[in-house]
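**User:** Everyone, produce a chain:

**Assistant:**
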Amino acid sequence: MNDKKKKLIQNIAAGSVAAAAMIAIVSGNLHFKERIQSSTNRAEASVTAVPAAEAAYQTYMKNLPSAVQEKIKKSAETNKPIQLVIAGDEATPAQGGWPQALADKLKEAYGPDMFHVTVKSYPQKTTKQWMDEKIYSEIASLKPDVLLYEPALLTDSGVVGKQESAANTQNIADEISKAVPGVAVLIQPSNPLYQAKYFPAVVQLVKETMQSKGYTYVDHWQAWPANDDLLKYLASPTGFANDEGQKVWAKYMTEYFVAK
């Protein structure tokens, strides 16, 4: 083989090596860029997802008092469930009714793990019995982060006087607050009664007393009809809410906890 031919073969070989090296470099760069872009996309998606989720619960919680809002924010950051205890008399059924509707709505809106709901119903127990039998201690033992409390004002009716009902309600809330530092206590009335004169005065006194002590009062009465239509929502004119009444109550409470 002459020198000219050898030179040609050497040039071809060198060119092939250079081309292969160039292809490797270009391919490597493309792969590197793809990896960088993929990582960037994932990071952007993550950053976008967090504000979207945060925006959702910030919208949902806007009707709630600031103490409850802070608990929701903390739960979102730590993934620790909020212990929500719902307590009352027959107006707050242990199964079904407005408490179950609220629990279902919280799970749907905030996700299955943000709220852990416990319902405690004490039929035929007056606010005086709550104090005498220290029922409040049982509620405190559940370590609620949030207590949604319906004092037994309907059960008190005709048995416990207006001033005592208000005092008992405050004392129960105070005892639970002392036993569970940081608990957010929300007070709500029992269902309204048809053409009642005395009962609204009891409820108004409880409302004023609790608000003056810094407790949040959740007034679902504004959702109930004030005329003869109210009879459709009560088991009796002077009794507890029937199934339709529970639905009215549930609608108000779910919209309170999950704002649109």
Remarks:
- The longest helix spans residues 3-60.
- The chain is about 60% helix and 10% strand.
- The chain has a mean pLDDT of 86.
- The chain has two domains: 1-56, 61-257.
